[in-house]
Amino acid sequence: LASGLALIAVLATLSAAAPPPDPADVSDRAAMRALVSRRVADALAPFALRYDKTYAFEPQGHAAIGYRVLAGMAVAAGDPIGARDAWPDAIDAFLAETERRGWRPAVLAAGPQARELWAARGMRGFGIGDEVIVDVAEFSLSGPAMRNVRQAVRRTEHAGIWVSVVPERELSPEAAR
After folding, report:
1. Which of 12, 103, 154, 156 is the most buried (most CB within 10 A)?
2. Taking the CA of residue 101 as centre, how many other CA atoms within 13 Å lie in the half-sphere pointing to its CB?
């Protein structure tokens, strides 16, 4: 029994994924900042600059992927950042790192072009949510279908939470912070 448990412990240790990496160092963060500042099309690109991110750069540094490792899963955030023609090499660099370290790769919020590149490398996609457009004039909380929403609204009101919609130009300097 003791030998069996020892064997299981050894096999579990040998097959465990590498621990998460430290967040990116100053030079990698500066390189990513330069890529984000050149990129105009993706509104999510600045999120790659979060301090908990690590980066996988393509060999020439023209594109990179920001990611974070949680429970043995390397989660890439959004599309690669940088020159679109370098995206395939950035994706390959990320996947090579996940393979080398024994992490499971995942991508959150990839756009249509990046999804094709991930799919070509064996990744499968699925939808998590949708954006919603609400016709404010027609919207109502009445009816049985909105019961859960009404309850959530009441809970937030009882907690003292409120929302106010104010045009940005009317915000005071204190409120704009």
Report:
1. 103
2. 20
User: If you search the block for the tokens 């998590």, which residue do you land on?
Assistant: 128
pTM tops 0.85: no
Token code pair at residue 52? 């908990």
**Coil, strand or helix at 149:** helix
Strands (E), 27-168: 54-57, 63-70, 73-77, 81-82, 104-108
Q: Express each pLDDT in 47-77 by its tens digit.
A: 888 888 999 999 999 999 999 998 889 999 8
Give burial (CB, 10 Å; 0-12/13-18/19+) of 4: exposed
Alpha carbon 169 to its chain centroid, in Å, reads 31
| Virtual torsion, Cα 23, 24, 26, 30, nearest 10 deg | -130
Q: CA nearest 31: which of 3, 1, 4, 54?
A: 54
- Identify residue 3 by its one-letter amino acid code: S
Helices vs strands, H then E, count in the chain: 6, 5
Is 71 buried (19+), middle (13-18) or exposed (0-12) by CB count in 10 A? exposed
